[in-house]
Prior knowledge:
The structure holds two protein chains of two kinds. Chain A is of the alpha+beta class. Chain A has helices at about 30-40, 40-50, 90-95; strands spanning about 1-5, 10-15, 20-25, 55-60, 65-70, 100. Helices cover about 20% and strands about 30% of the residues of chain A. In chain A, a hairpin with a 2-residue loop joins strand 2 and strand 3 (about 20-25). By secondary structure, chain B is of the alpha+beta class. Chain B has two domains: about 1-110 and about 145-305, no CATH class; about 310-425, Alpha-Beta Plaits (2-Layer Sandwich). Chain B has helices at about 15-25, 35-50, 60-75, 85-95, 115-120, 150-155, 170-180, 190-200, 255-260, 330-345, 390-395, 400-405; strands at about 1-5, 30, 75-80, 100-105, 140-145, 160-165, 230-235, 240, 270, 275-280, 285-290, 290-295, 300, 305-325, 355-360, 375-385, 410, 420-430, 440. In chain B, the strands form three sheets. A ten-stranded mixed beta sheet of chain B has the order 11-12-8-7-1-2-3-6-4-19, with helices on both faces. In chain B, strands 5, 14, 15, 16, 17 and 18 form a six-stranded antiparallel beta sheet that branches. In chain B, strands 9-10-13 form a three-stranded antiparallel beta sheet, with helices on one face.
Amino acid sequence: MMIPLSKIAHTRSGDKGDTSNIGVIVYDQKDYPLLVKELTSERVKAFFGDMVKGKVERFELPNLGALNFVLHEALGGGGTVSLRIDPQGKTLGAALLKMQIKANDHMGYNI
Amino acid sequence: MLRIANGQGFWGDWLEAPVRLIEQGPIDYLTLDYLAEVTMSILQKQRQADPNLGYARDFPPLIGRIARQMLERNIRVIANAGGVNPIACAEAVRKAAPGIKVAIVLGDDVLPRIDEFLAKGYEMRNLDTCAPLASIRDRILSANAYTGAFPLAEALATGAHVILAGRAADPALTLAPMIREFGWRETDWNKLAAGTVAGHIIECGTQATGGNCQVDWQSIPDLANIGYPIVEAESDGTFVVTKHPGTGGRVHSDIIKQQLLYELGDPKNFIAPDCTADFTTIHLDDIGPDRVRVSGIHGRERPANLKLSISYANGWKSIGTLIFSWPQAIEKAKVADQIVRTRLKALGLEFDEVHTEFFGANACHGSLATTVDPPEVQLRIGVRSFNRKAVDRFTRELIPLVLSGPPGATGYGDGRPPVREIVSYWPALVPRGEIQSSIEVLG
């Protein structure tokens, strides 16, 4: 069964220069293994497509039920250089919530 | 127990917040974080225009408003409002509040030392792009080191009411009073890491108390009167994050997790001037309404280098907009975009980048946005170039489309868009021994 990431997690995103980071946090600690399994850096990189020019790194914070994604060359130059309306990637975290992940059928998510 | 509050998450944050923090309950220290990466660039431009500026101008009148209560209740303020001109800022504070003693932490400004550093063989490569600083040497406008909490703690020892710094690292503002009051030493890595994490949690103001929060956001009460964050710190390095009773917003572990992840890189190596904190050791407990206890934090040795915030001139840019209405709003905006691009090309103008967004359709989420036929869309074209004339000419190319482009264009009331100079950010490293802080006291 495919579910959107928003069913199990919330996010906050920000910037450092042309690098954006997205913190992804599960609502319920029992979903953390699913998050670690499904939300790989390769999939996140593929999800953002041409919006993220550089590599995507992933870091695990099991103590917070969270993954941290660091997206390089993701903000059109970042800061004062970027011509984007969101040069600091404030809304990239919300965009990621749409990503579809594969949940176990017995987990009982309502879509 | 020490109560340390943060009343400003950036320059431009709510003017009433610091006043309310003082009026609505007990605090011992009020920290105010005015600086973001881009802020130093902005302040540098202001100092270029007027040598008496270059600091957070909201700060002196604020101290004027709260000076009486600060003195009566012994509340001390620690702020990086000094920007690229802390002495001018301190003088303005003294004018606004003559009874207030100000200690200025100096030594972060290394602009006069750039050539000395280069001669010593410090390449100061851009931490993002790895390019050597020499490639932009003639375009540098400002250079400041992110300084730590120990010079701020030393400034507190002077008894000053306001501790004013330039580019002090954001979390150092919160860590400094802990060092001062608890007697923490330069090698107490776990405690310094705990204070750094406390600073990271509150440095963005209400992002720790329910602002900009996805979690159940409709249920977060009374955002109009949102309470700013307060850390109740203990000498063992544990602390509670809370806010004044009766204020709006919410403090909950889900929200603290969001803020811990904000602007984070490698969580095991959160590098601050005073220590390296390990975010994978942080333990959170919801111990009561609007109270989250934070404990278990491990730290390691401080870095051998300090980070520099360098700003430099990086060309010109302008962003112009035009609105197209239903029906086929996006299609019309796309045609208009092509007309502008064709005309710019025919003029032979060179740009480093021409970037188009369709606000209302895909501006925030790019190709991830799902498009329908919206009631209206704003065409938003931005250009960037080292040739100011090219950018200037671009600003004249949108409005003609009101009569000569696709039907239904409006939203041109503000006329031509302004041309802005780009002042960019260059993060780099120097050996920490090169940065010596000193303290000057006014009053």
